[in-house]
What does this fold into?
Amino acid sequence: MGALTNNELALSAEEFCASADSRLYNHDLAPTTAKHRTWSTYNYIALWFSMSMEVTTYMLASSLIAGGMNWKEAVATILLGNLIVLVPMLLNAHAGTKYGIPFPVFVRASFGPVGANIPALLRAIVACGWFGIQSWLGGQAIAAMLSVLWPQTTHMPWVLWACFLGFWLLNMVVVWRGVESIRFLQSFSAPFMLFMSFLLLFWMLHKAGGFGPMLSAPSKFRTTGDFMRFFIPSLTAMVGYWATLSLNIPDFTRYAKNQDAQIVGQAIGLPVAMTLYSFIGIAVTSASTVVFGEPVWSPIALLARFHQPLVAFLGLIALLIATLNVNIGANVVSPSNDFSNLAPRLVSFRTGGLITGFLGLAMMPWKLMATFGSYIFGWLVGYSGLLGPVAGIMVADYFLVRRTKLDCYSLYRRGGMYEYRKGVNPVALIALALGVCVALIGRFVHALAFLYDYAWFAGFFLSGALYYLLMLHHRESAEATMA
It folds into this structure.
């Protein structure tokens, strides 16, 4: 059975559903048909703008200034990093548009129907970490709001922890009630966040005395070697920031009208949105160096220093709304479904959401966000070493081994061409394990620290190349089956 076209899927929907394995198929995982393909170029540009307008993007950019870069070096690093991650993003997006399948189904081709749970869980664990980070930022925003209203709370550490746990609990309540309960926020949270960010930018512009002083902070690196030691892991962090979405981008591109719509939309939306919003973080942090004598990389800490309660309060409200919206939409839905997929009869979406929340706590987000160094070199670079190998295997399998040809029927059935050994492809697991080990070994072996600096790149290319070489014998049989 060859790959199904949109018309074939539409005509055989009932037959397709009846023939699929109930353990691998439900309405959400089914291939999209022609009537679902409604997303245009504009929709993908809007998607990237909405996903980029959040606190962690701002802090990603501001951390580069805090680390010693000047504004030109920081903007160039962010733009280059997003252009690099755009490549695997577009490559993995192709299958979603061509076959209408989401990430959990697409990854079955390379890992097998059972083995696909492994990359899905890796992605889910990273999402749990992001959930904890966003909850911590939300708690900080509430604590900062209280300090504006009641300054005496500033010196009460328990207030911050109470706010953090309160905001975490609010997220859990939303999960329990269903994500539809905050659907109304999604229509205006990103524009509101952008408006408040520009307000903060112009306020700091006024305080610093114009763009000249604001962007005059020089680079702290005296030699090229010093710069490269910070630039390389920072570039890896820029790529790692979207490493998760570079895997599950088929979840979005399966709704594209055609390949051009998603390619052009993403090629414009991702680099433009990230560079634009990152520039706000870069400029404001540069201004904070002029105004306060030191770079303040957290917008929450910066707003808390304002002596104008109304401006600070409105800014913190914007951060809180955006954080709640992003946390539920980006960091709960996906891992909840991944956990539920492990045991559909035992783990519901609600239960999966609760698991996500508690794992987010267990990952101690206050340590991940303690400094710009722990955020970039610990969190972003670290998990990029887990997801880079998965991306390399997916790209190698789809483009080099299968040459963009998939059998949709077999992706939803056991015992087919993707069964491998009891539903697991040992080649994929070997390539994944070696790629992760090489990417992360530098974290523990000082002599190999350079590998950790290149964690995503090392894992992506090593696992991709190893998978391709080990699967060469399988390519001929796959092509014969698809013919």
Observations:
- Confidence is low (pLDDT under 50) at residues 6-11.
